[in-house]
Amino acid sequence: MSETPAAETRSKVLRSRTTAAHATLDDRIMSSRPFESRERYGLFLQVQHAFYGDIDALYADPALDRLLPDLAGRRRLGKIEDDLADLGLAAAPADAAPAFSADVEVPKALGWLYVAEGSNLGAAILLKEAMKLGLGETFGARHLAGAPEGRGLHWRTFTAALDGVALDAAGEAAVVDGANTAFLRVRSLVERFMPQG
Question: Rg for the chain (alpha carbons), in Å?
Answer without folding.
Answer: 17
